[in-house]
Amino acid sequence: MPDWPVHGSKLVPWKTQGRAPREDREFTEGLVSLPPLVADCWFDPGRETMVALEEAAVAVASLDVTAGMRMAAISGFLLRSEAVSSSKIEQVDANRNDYAKAMIGLKASDNAKSMVAAADAVQGMIADAGESGEIRLEAMLTAHQTLMKDDPVDSSYAGKFRDVQNWIGGSDFSPRGAIHVPPPPELVTELMEDLVAFCNRRDVPIMAQAAIAHAQFESIHPFTDGNGRIGRALIGAISRRRGLTKNTVTPIASAMVADVEKYFALVNNYRTGEADPFVLYLAKAALHASDAARESVTALDALPAAWVELAKPRKGSADEKIIPWLLERPVFEAHSAAHVAGVEERSVYGALERLTKAGVITQITASQRNRAWAATEVLDEVDRLNRRLATWQTGV
């Protein structure tokens, strides 16, 4: 028996525009999904889910506290982890050096720039929830504008709800064979306002609220593109609004990317009224992501001492001043390093050369102009976190 309202459907006419295969030209009508209004719906979790929700809340809050003295560095790392993994779920990926260059505005691939935009979008949406105490449609639209404004295909739709019909899977030309056909565009605003009302309740367990809100968001699919990344940012925004986190982002997408097919299947099943399985899944994902992230925090905390051991900097030298800063700014150019070291830019290159030879940093640019460096151990910890989470769903 369903534990949540089942999505309805409606048969609507369809006319394929432009040149398309015969099967699409002959596709004249199809079913669109009609998500239920959920603002006042009550969720009653099963016993296993109740326990998982409590354990997840404790783990997420504990991770937030664990960041401790290195708050800026750890929160930056967790934000990057979430944005990178959320992008990978959408098959948006880039190599480490390309992503690093995009982080400081140097020439990089579209994918790398999109991953950086995803981090900015997540951060903006979560920060707004913390500052305003609400989940706001305006913040979602702003986050979407940040994410999609430079997209080569969908930039004209950045920051706007769709005014066209979209679909997931199936043909490129029509909803023929689609896995999910979201509601017609004229229903999007009402459904999103209803979803925001649900997000701003306080009588639903936090992670259950985040899970249901995410699944409902994905059903509505309010944007032409970027829905997955904004929908996953909603999970973190609800955690921040409810006070579960104050400074960090739980890298739940890093757990999801371990088995994308399972994640998608549970979101699809939500539409048949199966909310509890997805809530349980998200609670367990949050628990495992928090545990794995604490290992990353420990590893990152150990890096400055290891770097000092490698470089053996003179006391009071530029090298010594740059080393502790690398956790917070793992990708940088010479002028930033010079500012931190308190020296003129022309004087900092010797320190950067010594740190490079010691294996503390790596130059990520090939040319002598616009040179940039990275503390690659910090960036690589994102991949190590993902590897630790790769087997959580199977227990291998």
- The CA-CA distance between the termini, in Å, is 32 Å
CATH T-level topology of the largest domain = Fic-like fold
Strand order of the largest sheet: 3-5-4
Supply the number of helical segments.
16
CATH class bucket of the largest domain: Mainly Alpha
Quick structural overview:
This protein has 396 residues and is mainly α. Helices cover 56% and strands 5% of the residues.
Q: How would you describe this protein?
A:
This protein is 56% helix and 5% strand. The chain is built from 16 helices and 5 strands. The strands form 2 sheets. The chain has a 3-stranded antiparallel beta sheet, with helices on both faces. The chain has a two-stranded antiparallel sheet with strand order 1-2. The protein has helices at residues 22-25, 47-66, 71-89, 96-103, 110-132, 137-148, 188-199, 206-220, 227-241, 252-256, 260-270, 275-311, 318-322, 334-341, 345-357, 376-389; strands at residues 8-13, 29-34, 331-333, 362-363, 372-374. The longest helix has 37 residues, at 275-311. Helix 2 runs parallel beside helix 12 (275-311), helix 4 (96-103) packs across helix 5 and helix 5 (110-132) runs antiparallel to helix 6 (137-148). The radius of gyration is 23 Å and the shape is globular. The chain has 2 domains: 8-295, Fido-like domain (Fic-like fold); 304-384, Winged helix-like DNA-binding domain superfamily/Winged helix DNA-binding domain (Arc Repressor Mutant, subunit A). It is mainly α and 396 residues long. The mean pLDDT is 94.
